[in-house]
Amino acid sequence: MTDSLRLLWLTSWTLAATSLSVMGFLIAARLWRDGVDSRRRRARAAITQAYLAVMAGAPQALTRLGQDRANPSLQAEALLEMLGVVRGGDRDRLVEALRAWGLDQRLLPHLNRGPIQNRLTTAEALGVFPGPQNEAALRAVLSQAAPALRLAAAKSLLQLGAPIDVGAFLRQAEGRGHPRSASLAEVLRPLAERQPADCATLLLGRDLPDPLRVMLAEALGASSDYGVLPVLEQAAISETPAVRAAALRTLGRLMHPAAEAAVAQGMTDADSQVRAAAAAAAGAAGLANLTPQLAHRLRDPVWTVRFHAAEALARLGARGIALLRAEASGENGEAARIAALTLAERRL
Amino acid sequence: MALAEELLSATARVTALAAITAAGLQNGVYLWQLVVASAALRLRPPPPSETDLWRRYADSAPPIALIAPAFNEEATAAESVRSLLALHYPNFEIVVVNDGSTDGTLRTLIEAFELEPVERNYDLAAPCQPIRGVYASPNQPRLVVVDKANGGKADALNAGINLARAPIVCAMDADSLLEPDALLRAVRPFIEDPERTVAVGGAVRVANGCGIADGRVLRAGLSRNPLVLLQTIEYLRAFLMGRLAWSQAGLLLIISGAFGLFRRQAVLDVGGYSHGTVGEDMELVVKLHKHYRRRREPYRVVFEPDPVCWTEAPETLRVLGRQRARWQRGALETFFRHRDMLFNPCYGRIGWISFADVLLMDIICPALVTTGYVLVPTAYFAGLLSIDYLEAFLAVAILMGVAISVGVLALEEAQIRRLPDTKSLLLLMLAAMTENFGYRQVNDLWRLRGVWQFLTRAKGWGAMTRRGFNRA
Q1: What ipTM goes with this model?
Q2: A residues 232-291 closer than 8 Å to B (CB)
Q3: How does strand B177-178 pair with strand B300-311?
Q4: Among residues A309, B39, B132, B343, which is most buried (max CB within 10 A)?
Q5: Is residue A45's pLDDT more than 60?
Q6: Chain A within 8 Å of B119 (Cβ-Cβ)?
């Protein structure tokens, strides 16, 4: 027993001494790190000044950066920050000057090595410099493990106008087992605009999980391509409620009268999220013929459906508003309440 | 006589061993947390800058409704709302819930923001006291003020959630000061793993001593009040170490009521915040665990160390003691309300580990360790215990505590680096060392007071005197 107690005593002293030593080292390191941070801030400021000078018409300012050139990730950071606020001729001037100065060539090696944050920034910055070598390097990143890096590379490729195999891209993401980021939608939207047929085929296919099919259905709304209507109508009767709901929302965004039948069917769906999506779609697409079905949905047992039905009626002009007013003074408590509140909220 | 002495000595040894074991367990758990949190922070990339965050996440950031309950906040309400309106987030609304204030809180808000009575469609999905009115202004499209009968914080939050339209709700305290990019940092798990994430908690730091203006912390700083310095270390240990470690293990049982994001539908699915407890923040998270584990659906309750909310820490022992006893009471209320989860295989590791941790760390260990502080030295000086027991107890209870407190400060400096200067670091190191010579012991006493309050069914929050923040 005594030995065990002594061991506890020794262990505690050892841990305390270790903590204090580490802390002592960190305090000393703080002084060094403050210097590093200060130098980094000055280098960033110098780079930003140089970029401003370039945009003002003095491209030779880049050659005066000196040893700051040795830190391409700092350059990339400054570039992305600048391009976040600069447009038009100034932007083009800066990018052209940096390309002539060879920044993209110096960035390329940093795409595949170093801390992940630097690699991310590099991938994002390369999206500004068109060229086959940059495209090839970004394309190679699409098959890498880090989801954020793959997304950044995909966004950069899209920015450069380079095509992406949507199916391969999504299957690679699934194959890694990483969680599906909502940021995927930022890649799928432009892909749906440029390659609506490919996205439509994937939507109806069975090899992608439902959450991705939901994203695809929603992305197709950005395509404004009425050619995808039949695909969305098919998706609106899919087995999965979330896919049905997404397809109906997209049909609403596309605002085509041909969606009326699918939306009407959606309003009688067994799943409340589908009914709510259908009601919202009816209002968004201006499907005034569906006002009787919407009026029926004011009595839906689920509040969200009643809410979207009332909002849709309010959007459908005089006919919908008249119906709401009639319901507001009616005898059905829930329908009357939702109708009255909608009219009051919208001051109709 | 000899027999009596022998019995006494044996009792003293057993008591000492129990106290040593309890202290060892307590600090052993903290040590585990420190190791897990260190590993987690090592593997995390450094937090991106706000510019990077905006560029990467703004387009996919879901709308958030900030629910800000207010009760008798006339002096600070307008400034607090202005600071919330200035948050850097692409799409959010603020729902201020005036919880039956008896001062001019509502009038102040109406005048400050030119609010008018409006109608708003809402569902009474979560239970709350009657809503008397809703106010908004075309000049402030992000702001909605709800006036309701008094019902307490949980009730006010429920009312806010009922009126919110965003898929994510952010529950906060009236005196929480969010950093401008806090929402963008806190929402990342909802973006990166939208299918599973149901709740995210952010870090809470002590605002006393910081330079504050217009409801915003402009300059991080440290209070010169020793009690506040000790709490600063405590908050680091609780959030940076404790919450991060539990989150990494998928065992997080609490998200601070000062700053937490929740999927609105998930909160409604579990009936909203529960009434009748002062630990409504912990109780909500426990309900979420119960709900998803029963349904065997994948889910995540996460702690994010990057987003920061600043809060005022009590500056006197009396107010601090009341606060700590209340926290303890809240934890026990939740524990006993959901005691069926303890060691229940239906709830997996939550039942076996998280709930067992509450039993151990909040009830058993404080009682045994406090007993040890009294009985072990007494028994030693009475000749009933050898020096080995005393040294072992003091080493495990105090020295190990020093190791952990200093360790968490080292973690903060190595991985987070929010302390403004070397002087602050030295001051906090002193606090970390001295924390274990009196402060933690008093904390254990406050916990026991909380246990007593729970057992005697005490109600209410007590008077939480706030001095207000120093100005920059």
Answers
A1: 0.92
A2: none
A3: antiparallel
A4: A309
A5: yes
A6: yes
